[in-house]
Write a structure and sequence with these properties.
Layout (H helix, E strand, L loop, with lengths): L6 H5 L5 E4 L1 H16 L4 E6 L6 H9 L3 E4 L2 H9 L7 E3 L6 H9 L4 E4 L2 H13 L4 E8 L21 E2 L3 H10 L3 E7 L9 H20 L6 E3 L19 H11 L7 E6 L1 H4 L3 E12 L4 E5 L8 H5 L5 E3 L6 E7 L8 E9 L6 E4 L20 E4 L5
Parallel strand pairs: 1-17, 2-3, 2-10, 3-4, 4-5, 5-6, 6-7, 6-8, 8-9, 9-10, 12-14
Antiparallel strand pairs: 1-11, 11-12, 11-16, 13-16, 14-15
Helix pairs in contact: 2-9, 4-5, 5-6, 8-9
The protein binds pyridoxal-5'-phosphate (PLP).
The site of pyridoxal-5'-phosphate has 18 residues, from β10 and α10.
């Protein structure tokens, strides 16, 4: 089964480009709102870094989600697309003074702080402005997610967060500072997680920590569980919408939510991943001595995930029904790692055929580069190519 696309429009549009099915995006957002809405105090932010295309941000903002930002540029992009600052959270191990000042000027909801030196600087910069910054502490819960090593973030060896054992001390330091206010705890264990057991482990860690903090009479208003829910890269047509019910129900069942406490989530990939495809044309079919190559006009500059994480994306020749053959699908960039897939089956490829690289809505367009002096890929929403 192949995806359904406006093939004739694709043929007259300069390739490569990203194509976003906004119908699917809206259905996905509806599912998030329904499933999260079943639980009191659950609030979902969208992790801007997954896809910051303004047309996409606008749709997500209209669905009522907040924004999770990891840079000043993302805070600005969120505000420009209509996100209210009181729904913006700001994480990152290396926030610059300029970025912190932007967050203070815009009165964002919360800084997710990752170290004590960072806390001191936020306190200092807030004092200069005569403001109080709301802060949550990002905790490294030492939970391993069963995902690729480069996208695991919650292990003791990773650079993110503050060790769980140091929490009482850190909260004590914060309460001695005049210009920061402790408002919650923040966690994020990794990405592309499909095993609900990993989120269950996180819930257990959060419960342990809350119990411990309560023995010190520390009350936590907000728990931010981060993001990380994965998508089905193998079956984008069969499973276009992730299992948000199982995800939110896991937290509702296992996380011991205190009275009046808010539980925040920061979903990125699961919101936008399946609605995007990278559309490309076949430039040449080259018959090597042992294999044949489909050389396409998209490269690792447009979609770096296969080169960076050995990530799998389903690839379809959407303009051919000819018999299936085996190809290595490669881009034009001068790097051996510029390979989208090896030895995959595609309907026979000829010059000019349209190739769809599926499930590319997250960490695709946002990670594009201009290496080899290539232009950045354009992004079109379905309304633009009808
Ligand atoms: C990247 C990131 C997310 C989103 O992760 P997904 O796997 O795309 O859901 C959430 N929170 C933080 C702090 C992040 O860095």
């Amino acid at each position: 089964m192949k995806g359904v696309f406006p093939l004739n429009k694709f043929k007259e549009t300069e390739t490569p480009f990203y194509y976003y099915d906004t119908g699917l995006l809206r259905k996905t957002l509806r599912s998030i709102n329904i499933e999260a809405g079943k639980h009191d105090g659950f609030f979902v932010h969208y992790a801007i870094k997954a896809n910051a295309n303004p047309k996409i941000l606008n749709i997500i903002c209209q669905a009522g989600l907040g924004a999770d930002c990891v840079s000043g540029g993302e805070i600005q992009a969120a505000i420009d697309s209509g996100f209210s600052p009181d729904k913006i959270v700001f994480a990152g191990v290396g926030k610059s003074d300029k970025e912190i000042n932007l967050g203070l000027d815009k009165n964002i909801f919360c800084f997710n702080v990752e170290s004590i030196p960072e806390l001191s600087i936020i306190n200092e910069l807030a004092a200069h402005k005569g403001k109080t910054a709301r802060v949550a502490f990002r905790i490294n819960p030492n939970v391993g997610a069963h995902t690729h090593a480069n996208i695991t973030t919650g292990l003791a060896e990773n650079k993110f967060g503050i060790a769980m054992d140091d929490m009482e001390d850190v909260i004590g330091i914060a309460s001695s500072m005049k210009n920061v206010k402790f408002v919650g705890l923040h966690f994020h264990i990794g990405s592309q997680i499909l095993d609900m057991g990993d989120f269950a482990s996180l819930c257990n860690r959060i419960n342990d920590l809350q119990n411990r903090l309560e023995t010190h009479r520390i009350k936590v208003e907000n728990i931010n569980a981060g993001g990380g829910l994965g998508i089905d890269y193998t079956h984008p047509n069969k499973v276009p919408i992730p299992d948000f019910k199982a995800y939110f129900d896991t937290y509702a069942r296992l996380l011991k939510q205190r009275k009046g406490q808010k539980i925040h989530f920061e979903l990125g990939r699961s919101v936008v991943g399946q609605c995007g495809s990278l559309i490309s044309k076949v430039l040449y079919v080259k018959h090597g001595s042992v294999k044949q190559f489909a050389i396409i006009d998209a490269g690792m500059t447009d979609l770096i995930r296969p080169a960076l994480y050995q990530a799998y994306h389903k690839i379809e020749n959407i303009s051919s029904d000819k018999t299936v053959q085996t190809y290595d699908v490669v881009g034009p960039i001068c790097e051996s790692s510029d390979v989208f897939a090896k030895a995959i089956d595609l309907n026979e490829c000829n010059r000019g055929d349209i190739i769809a690289i599926r499930s590319a809505g997250a960490y695709g367009e946002t990670m594009a580069s201009q290496y080899n002096c290539r232009p950045l890929p354009k992004g079109y929403i379905s309304e633009e190519l009808q």
